[in-house]
């Protein structure tokens, strides 16, 4: 098949980095289409572990091109640190990476504004990473942002930066923020960043569309997950960008008719980082045990993830929003020791079963999950390489989830390594990535 989108089906952290890395060898280009350096994709290759925050996971495949699309917001200091770490590991970043000239730039005052916003009395805490991502997107939408193309133009950058910095200084004084910033020093530092990044910056929409005309295949990599999407997630406890499959078009400049398949990534249970509704959260010792076994700590922040159970209504919703052709189910092995496994099959609010996903966070907080319990398999799956060799109860669990969500489970991950992945023969997943 042609071009494929990989999108998170839950609240992020589903294992997209591993799936993208694993199958990027079948594509010519891997393009990231939204988010910032708050999203971390962890990839293990042998004894090496890579945590990628901005650069697509495909960069780890020699000869593959990686693209940072226009839908991202970029902290140049964070990007250069990531580049240096990859180069130290022997990755040819300069030869493989291209950055959109339309991507917006994060500055230190964006971090200051986000921290101020999160700490303001009376404001609902969203639980952001305070990396300036939200305020940068705010400037983008308000049409006062600075893009990579501006950063690379010394005359234009100086004028735009001074105007934006002056505005932030006025806001800081008005809000009685006493954090002093060396605005002139920041401008000089960013001018240095610009020269280091200049060789990799280009019109990536033109690059991608030209590549498709030449018959090359593109794998589009999303960050976070559908339930953190600015429009369709648990608003306001969401990210600031379009984390759904639709964001692949707006975030790269590739028309939707050029995308042939959408693959959702879901854990065999559920996790969430930060504040906000989480209907199936397990606030008990078993939830703590899942966190321990699954090493459920943020790859970027180290924050412990909230853990819970597979949510059928949620996956039905995210499958509808994204149009999933197939799902890759990750971390099945984390459930290996459980005697029985809860699965949420319906939502009730006020004693009534609800259809669809409630739009307001307050209504979502009132959800009463309805559970069914499936028998566990009580044996290790981590060394299994074919679907047929999975324990019967594990296959029953997967079949139950497939039937309940009405979405094919075409791939199962039973560990962090590349070879700990099972693709169902004859599945739409296999066809999409063939």
Describe the structure.
By secondary structure, the protein is of the alpha/beta class. It has three domains: about 5-100 and about 200-260, Adenylosuccinate Synthetase, Chain A, domain 1 (3-Layer(aba) Sandwich); about 105-195, Orthogonal Bundle (Adenylosuccinate Synthetase, subunit A, domain 2); about 265-434, Adenylosuccinate Synthetase, Chain A, domain 3, CATH 3.90.170. Helices cover about 35% and strands about 20% of the residues. The chain is built from 15 helices and 20 strands. A ten-stranded mixed β-sheet has the order 9-7-5-2-10-1-11-15-19-20, sandwiched between helices. Strands 14, 16, 17 and 18 form a four-stranded mixed β-sheet that branches. Helix 4 crosses helix 5 (about 135-140). The longest helix has 21 residues, at about 155-175. It is globular and about 65 Å long.
């Amino acid at each position: 098949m042609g071009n494929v989108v990989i999108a998170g089906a839950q609240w992020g952290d589903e294992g997209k980095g591993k799936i993208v890395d694993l199958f990027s060898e079948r594509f010519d280009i891997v393009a990231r289409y939204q988010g910032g350096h708050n999203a971390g994709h962890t990839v293990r290759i042998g004894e090496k572990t890579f945590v990628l925050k901005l650069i697509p996971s495909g960069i780890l495949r020699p000869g593959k091109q990686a693209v940072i699309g226009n839908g991202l917001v970029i902290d140049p200091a964070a990007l250069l640190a990531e580049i240096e770490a990859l180069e130290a590991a022997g990755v040819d970043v300069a030869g493989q990476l291209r950055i959109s000239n339309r991507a917006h730039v994060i500055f230190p005052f964006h971090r200051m504004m986000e921290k101020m916003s999160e700490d303001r009395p009376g404001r609902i805490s969203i639980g952001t990473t305070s990396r300036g991502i939200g305020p940068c997107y705010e400037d983008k939408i308000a049409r006062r942002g600075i893009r990579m193309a501006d950063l690379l133009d010394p005359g234009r950058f100086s004028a735009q930066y001074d105007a934006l910095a002056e505005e932030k200084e006025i806001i800081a004084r008005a809000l009685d923020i006493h954090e002093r910033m060396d605005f002139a020093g920041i401008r000089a530092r960013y001018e240095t960043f610009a020269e280091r990044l200049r060789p990799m910056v280009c019109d990536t929409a033109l690059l991608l569309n030209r590549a498709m005309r030449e018959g090359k295949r593109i794998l589009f990599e999303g960050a976070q997950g559908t339930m953190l999407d600015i429009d369709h997630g648990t608003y306001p406890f969401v990210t600031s960008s379009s984390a759904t499959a639709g964001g692949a078009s707006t975030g790269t400049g590739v028309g939707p008719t050029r995308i042939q398949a959408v693959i959702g990534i879901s854990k065999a249970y559920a996790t969430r980082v930060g504040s906000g509704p989480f209907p199936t959260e397990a606030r008990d010792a078993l939830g703590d045990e899942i966190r321990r076994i699954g090493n459920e700590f943020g790859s970027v922040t180290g924050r412990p993830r909230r853990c819970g159970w597979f949510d059928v209504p949620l996956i039905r919703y995210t499958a509808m929003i994204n149009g999933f052709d197939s799902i890759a189910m990750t971390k099945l092995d984390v459930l290996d020791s459980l005697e029985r496994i809860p699965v949420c099959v319906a939502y009730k609010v006020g004693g009534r079963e609800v259809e669809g996903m409630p739009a307001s966070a307050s209504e979502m907080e009132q959800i009463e999950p309805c559970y069914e319990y499936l028998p566990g398999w009580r044996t290790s799956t981590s060394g299994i390489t074919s679907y047929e060799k999975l324990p019967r109860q594990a296959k029953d669990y997967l079949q139950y989830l497939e039937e309940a969500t009405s979405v094919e489970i075409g791939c199962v991950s039973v560990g962090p390594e590349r070879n700990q992945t099972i693709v169902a023969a004859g599945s739409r997943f296999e066809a999409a990535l063939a």
